[in-house]
Amino acid sequence: MTTEIYLDGNATTAVLPAAIAAAADAMGQRYGNPSSSHATGLKAKVLLDQARACAIRLLGVGEGRLMFNSGATEGIQTAVLSALAALRERRERGEPIGSLLVYGATEHKAVPESLAHWNRLLGLNLTLQKLPVDQDGAHDLAQLRALAPQAGLVCTMAANNETGVITDLAAIEAVLAETGSPAYWLVDCVQALGKLDLNLAATRIDYAPFSGHKLYAPKGVGMLYVRAGAPFTPLIMGGGQEGGQRSGTENMAGIAALGAVLSALERGDTFRSHHQLASYRARLAESLRAALPGVVFNHPFDKSLPTTLNFSVPGLSSRELMDVFDAAQVRVSSGSACSAAKAAPSYVLDAMHAPLWRSAGAIRMSFGPLADEATINDACRRIERCGAALRASCLIPSERTAVPHDGLLQLGVEGACSWLVLDAASRSCIVIDPLPEMTGRIESYVRCQNYHVQAIVSTTSGADRSVLIEALGRHFDHRAATDAYGWPAAAAIKLGAQTLARVADGAARHYLLGVADGDTLAPRAVRFAFSARPAVDVLRPLTCAQTLLCPTRDEHNQFCVGMAAPANAGAASDLQLDSAALDAFLQAHPDAQLVDVREPYEFAATTAPGPGGRQALSVPLGRLAEHASDWLRGEHAPLIFFCRSGNRSQKAAQLLRRLGHAQAYSLNGGLALAPLAKAA
Ligand code: PLP
């Protein structure tokens, strides 16, 4: 199980082998310029004409225009420019044009951004008006009825890219007709191609942009349909290609490839039927329900493309879900691809009135009509594996008690963090500075490993611990008396073999952890000190050079700092180990340790063997302080940290270098770029 399963078809698709062959032919044998009148040019022209003729038949273009371009963003641009230029001319002639540019609240950003751009550039100054959708993603037709008479242009997509929700185009057309709206109508058909039947000339649609790369053609090629009689203004002027509608020598490789896809679509022998695709979606949904308890689908399946599932899981962020799927080599996306880097809530789900946890935590799983049974079955098995990995990591509820952890765990949110001191032997733990945002995480961690929480202490006086105390229920002794810092009536807290001692520092408190000799925790025995801020001066007499300071504010992702002045971490490039150099490095350093710093659920869900084919140690960033303390004591054998992209491992290597470990490295580009080792 090492191959990638690509379930992000709404972002882009692989290229159909027949399309690759057609592109290669257009670049190889038939490389001519279709505008040339010699035989080489004519051969290319035939390709162009065949592709266009196929598109015209397939989309029911009738007497309308069908031009090739670079993709849907260009098509939207051209359509908006055409409609708005016509509106301006009409206004100049003294005709009424309405005052609104209406667009669906769930449109791809290319639509409102183009509307705003051309509205400003053409000096039209019309009002951009969002058309709301209901919780199923359907346009509010009553609102459209009210707006349509004032609208100069209405933009509604055929199917949504995030949720697959299909627009009832017939209902919109009926509203435009019954209100006598003078508006032009743009329908973004990108996600509909190959998945919905289209007969454009039989509708009132004025403009319909398409994109090749959403249906197995390469990126950088698309089409625009313009209804016969609808206004048209070229976006690009020049040599007069595409009948003067879109100048620039044609992207013949792209057009030939798109032509091959369209011809496969027309023949009907390549892509799966709606029914088959719907059965694949049902199977994926069933696996998701079984693997991820409480999963909520963010759109009605019966009103969506059969190739899209958009879901959220209570208690899990989209980042966590993305990471676990990626580890299992299942490629999905959070929200829309354009905003995948940001964990911002999805504006599409916001518009559908989804609560914040669903719109910020959403995952889109989408496949194309070329999907096959074996891939879907494999995807279902990997979804189950992801569920098991999340259960074992206590991120989703499980019937079974998880194997308990020992040592320190850092749980952070945006610069602040809580620390858990865990003792597996006695199944007990201590919580230091519980963050309100971490309540659910701490509670499920404690419950699933069946720990008894001995104490919940704070570094500041009067911090609110009540929410966590209530959430912990029987896992915490509510009756024990504590001071304003949560400290019980004892000089020190014993946790298995370890002792936690407190240090007063004005209004603040610091805590020291180590193995006490009798009742006293000697400075040389202190392994960790916990503080809201690194109070080195106060702590120096009470600790030793090996003590690590664990701050509960960690804006710069330092994890922990040493008592001594930090060593120079070196230039970022000194830390980087290229995957091409990994084998040689491992041969030269047989004692080198590979350390996987991804989260435990990513480690558990991983299907591919690790880099270098060597067994890796799993040490997520939250457990780094604990392990750093051990690594620094020993011989300082080389440490090679890795993660998915090289981001987290770089932080880990920097930490170890700062703490004085001279041989800490980060695998450049992470697992994403590492050549896969052969499975044993
Ligand atoms: N419209 C929709 C619905 C899309 O999904 C996309 C692609 O993300 C676009 C427009 C933009 O298409 P292109 O990448 O061809 O510019």
TrEMBL record:
The reaction(s) annotated as catalysed by this protein in its Swiss-Prot or TrEMBL entry are: (sulfur carrier)-H + L-cysteine = (sulfur carrier)-SH + L-alanine
PROSITE patterns (UniProt xref) = AA_TRANSFER_CLASS_5, RHODANESE_3
Molecular functions per Gene Ontology: cysteine desulfurase activity; iron-sulfur cluster binding; metal ion binding; transaminase activity
Rhodanese domain: residues covered: 588-678
Give the matching SMART domains: RHOD (SM00450)
Q: What is this protein called?
A: cysteine desulfurase
Q: Supply the enzyme class, top level.
A: transferase
**Record keywords, A-Z:** Aminotransferase, Iron, Iron-sulfur, Metal-binding, Pyridoxal phosphate, Transferase
Per its UniProt record, the required cofactor names are:
pyridoxal 5'-phosphate
Give the record's family classification: Belongs to the class-V pyridoxal-phosphate-dependent aminotransferase family. NifS/IscS subfamily.
Taxonomy, superkingdom: Bacteria
- EC annotation from Swiss-Prot or TrEMBL: 2.8.1.7
Q: Which PANTHER family match?
A: CYSTEINE DESULFURASE (PTHR11601:SF34), CYSTEINE DESULFURYLASE FAMILY MEMBER (PTHR11601)
Organism whose genome encodes this protein: Duganella vulcania
